[in-house]
Amino acid sequence: EQQLKWDSYHQLQQLLRERRLMRAIALVEALAQRMPQDPEVRQWQAIAYQTWAKHLVKQHKLDKARNYLRKALKTDPYNKSLCAQIEQDFLVIEQMI
Question: What is the CATH number of domain 2-96?
Answer without folding.
Answer: 1.25.40
